[in-house]
Amino acid sequence: MLQVVDVELTPNPHALKFLVNQRLLRAESRQYATKQEAAGDPLASGVFAIEGVASVFYMDKFITVEKAQTSEWGKIQRPFVAFLSKFDLSTIPPEKEVMADTADGNEMLKKINEILNQKVRPALAHDGGGLEVIGMEGLTLKVRYQGACGTCPSSINGTLTAIESLLKKDVNPSIEVLPG
Fold this sequence. Notes:
alpha+beta, Ribosomal Protein S8, Chain: A, domain 1, 2 domains, GMP Synthetase, Chain A, domain 3, five-stranded antiparallel sheet, three-stranded mixed sheet
């Protein structure tokens, strides 16, 4: 049975990170900003069925739920825990085979992802979020925040600047990182 084992605050005042007792995904992360996006995913669709849910992000052994600004956590948490306790994990769509982010042979992008995997993504996951590399054109890297980080003011300013500084130091001093 899937159970919430802990709830953690995130830097985003409208998002909570729910730690669960079983692994949901091994390699992927899944982000849904609307009910329509979540239509093919029974876990995310079930969470969106709870009134007041604004977005759903999950990976590994946690689910981050963002609430609408006008909603109260008290009206979301109990139905969420009840939904999870009855949820059949086998209905989560299978993970896609993880392709290397270097399909085009871009060694710089490979190095960037290695650094992000080592130094950035674990910290974001700790705060209930994630980071997706959308692409790279020249020395401009486009990224998209996921989960609690997606609408958090600190991720849009401070974290983006920190990521850019890290990549300038470790990869190329001319790299620019932009939200996508």
